[in-house]
């Protein structure tokens, strides 16, 4: 491998896709997936919305750079960012830029606790179109991964508080998948997956008590394989 | 996002992990997973083995760069490379280098047809240790992904010819997982997955005829999601 001066033309950026869940303003019985985007204040794409991100610094790891730029642009600090994909098409930006994209799910309380600058807004993912660069494509890929690749455990851990009912978990799934799920089938699949564990606690209220569940942390940790944190 | 001159210190490389399957020299009834590595001819790590790879050029996409450097270093040209992960720890190379790693499975006939330079050798993955840079870690992660993330369809398509018996597919799985599998259970799981399709052809020989299967291409194509090729 010989270093060529042409390498100077290639720059490395990081971007982050953040998913959160909220009740829709139109109907509080419905949930929707929302995502923070940042209005660009300079060219290229000045005035357009883009994913939170920035340039990689020589002295920081990829995940550290994603966490820093996310915090700087949106005030968000999720406990864990997972690498999604490296986007590097030749024409994706005016200067040749490889973007390492990370993603995370955040709970509603984390999302609203973040003190965000004025140029940040949360939009429903299904209405996000016309983002800067190839960010529409990145959001489409992240949404597909959210639908297809995450297990019950990860979704519960990402979107819900520590303890939750099966009905709440099902509502999260219905929002992510965009369709209704049969409660009995859902219970069977969740219990078979061993991704969540029944606790001895119940939620009581107007209806009959509903058992509270928690995520199976052991299963979640195994999911990253032999990668050290970077 | 402001461009800083510090970006000039960061370089982008690509590397490729290639898995192939061969009968072990010690016992032809056994299979083993092998991988090509390249002996480095210059510092750093001169004389050590490393994954095939090289620097990204400003005018080529990531997957194109992986394919080019793989071809240049090993003579291999798999039909499809999948992105594995971007490795970017600060201390992984003497100069700050982000490596976008791709991977592919190749069939034994593709592996032996490649005209490789003298400094390329295929080693059993389980005996590969002490590679240059963080390549031990990359191989460990790729092996974990091979074991955990690929479905019956992809493994069949990657390692086997167009038509194969269930016994052959099971032998491939036994080699990848490093353990014996119960033939009846295996048949049930494969058939339930719909990842392979029974053909009307049979392999005949000394034993009773065995039905030949092919991979379900429709399922395989759906697996990449909305990513365009890059």
UniProtKB/TrEMBL annotation, chains A, B:
<dbReference type="InterPro" id="IPR036390">
    <property type="entry name" value="WH_DNA-bd_sf"/>
</dbReference>
<feature type="domain" description="Nudix hydrolase">
    <location>
        <begin position="9"/>
        <end position="147"/>
    </location>
</feature>
<dbReference type="InterPro" id="IPR015797">
    <property type="entry name" value="NUDIX_hydrolase-like_dom_sf"/>
</dbReference>
<dbReference type="Pfam" id="PF21906">
    <property type="entry name" value="WHD_NrtR"/>
</dbReference>
<dbReference type="Pfam" id="PF00293">
    <property type="entry name" value="NUDIX"/>
</dbReference>
<protein>
    <submittedName>
        <fullName>NUDIX hydrolase</fullName>
    </submittedName>
</protein>
<dbReference type="InterPro" id="IPR036388">
    <property type="entry name" value="WH-like_DNA-bd_sf"/>
</dbReference>
<dbReference type="InterPro" id="IPR054105">
    <property type="entry name" value="WHD_NrtR"/>
</dbReference>
<dbReference type="InterPro" id="IPR000086">
    <property type="entry name" value="NUDIX_hydrolase_dom"/>
</dbReference>
<keyword id="KW-0378">Hydrolase</keyword>
<dbReference type="GO" id="GO:0016787">
    <property type="term" value="F:hydrolase activity"/>
</dbReference>
